[in-house]
Amino acid sequence: MLVGVTSSASQGLPLHAVRADALAGFLNNLPSAAAAFLRGAGFTARAGEVALLPGTDGLAGAAVGLGNGDAGPWAYGGLARGLPSGSAWRLAPGEGDPAEATLGWALGAYRPIRHKAAGAAPAVLELPLGSEQALMTAEAICAARDLINAPAADLGPVELAEAAVALAARHGASCEVIADEALAQGFPAVAAVGGGSPRPPRVAVLRWTGAADGPLIALCGKGVCFDSGGLDLKPPAGMLRMKKDMAGAAVVLAAAEMVMRSGLPVRLLVLVGAVENAISGHAMRPMDVLRTRKGLRVEIGNTDAEGRLVLCDLLAFASEQGPAAIIDCATLTGAARVALGPDLPALFCNDDDLATRLLAAGDAVRDPMWRLPLHDGYDSWLDSPFADLSNTAQKPMAGAITAALFLRRFVPAGIPWAHLDLYAWNDSNRPGRPEGGEAQCARALHALIANRAQRLHPAAGP
Fold this sequence. Notes:
Blueprint: E1 5-6, E2 13-18, H1 23-28, H2 32-41, E3 50-55, E4 58-65, H3 79-82, E5 88-91, H4 98-109, E6 124-126, H5 132-149, H6 157-170, E7 174-178, H7 180-186, H8 188-194, E8 202-209, E9 216-227, H9 236-239, H10 247-262, E10 267-277, E11 289-291, E12 297-299, H11 307-320, E13 325-330, H12 334-340, E14 346-349, H13 352-364, E15 370-371, E16 389-390, H14 399-408, E17 417-421, E18 425-426, E19 436-437, H15 442-456
Parallel strand pairs: 1-6, 2-4, 2-5, 5-6, 9-10, 9-13, 12-16, 13-17, 14-15
Antiparallel strand pairs: 3-4, 7-8, 8-10, 11-12, 14-17, 18-19
Helix pairs in contact: 4-5, 5-10, 7-8, 8-11, 10-15, 11-14, 13-15
């Protein structure tokens, strides 16, 4: 059970969730003294606003505002750390959604504690009936946050691959870890990216069957455990958060955990390319030409454009398995952040139906993204005089698009494919989203796969 949530019944104080347009009715049903207190305190029920309710013997409860009802779990995201430390609460009957309350509360209670004392205990929420799925989601998200927040010294390629193995073991899946000569032969671009580090690269291949006749969904995650930029060295400011460059892998593992724990009638193929982009005499060099799994030769225009080299071999392998869809996740380009900021991952997709469903799934669970174009007019910018293509464009513009166009070269046109370019980090504390690693798009991916399973198997649960 996550910190901040308990399955034990207790004498928790009532937490009243109040919509702004229902505030008058809520106040009319309160004891007159409590209603007068809230009016005097200026409580307006804006989203996330909290007011404690006094009682004759101390604290009688609390009210949290839902605004106009569109804040979702984030309206509850500040409660675990905003209500009195160690206090116990139960969601009172009314406007509150049990699943949203559980998800927001649990995600807000999270703090990275691997190398830091836990600090004050959060307030605790009794798990409301019908919110078990939300708790499962929060557990998967927090596990991904732990991976992203782990220092690179603690989480190298071997350890990241072991995280995939451990996930598989918990859910009856298989997981093969490809290393050494088998990796060099089968995933040569991955091997080249990781060749400069004393910590050897790995590819983890997780397979899970929820239904033998279910569609095969392939999830590919960039797992660069630290990105120095290679010989094209990043400046200090650019290197500061590069422990999070494996967040794409953490996201696909979180999505896979949700799918497996939900028992969805699909087949999963999860690929994690785990490497460290470091500097040594064995590191790839600018203008080197690399072999890839697909057979295309890639000239290295910049060693700091390594994530797409990891993904290209994963996409080629996934394509060979005949999937119904491939989705990759990666902290790939700064250009996507310039275009969309930290909260909106960039979506690129070769299939309009898949894109529409993925956008809708993200909006439904408040895990949004924004679609950018795979503009064919920029494809020639990847031309190289010495190889089939370059890993960087000839022009310093549209970097997120040209990175996606590079990846598209490794997916056959007939396979629906989506690429998600993530930031995967919260720059500051916000309700439900503490500073540090964030598993952006994991909930959206789970919702997409659940929706697809529901269409194919109407009896399937969420």
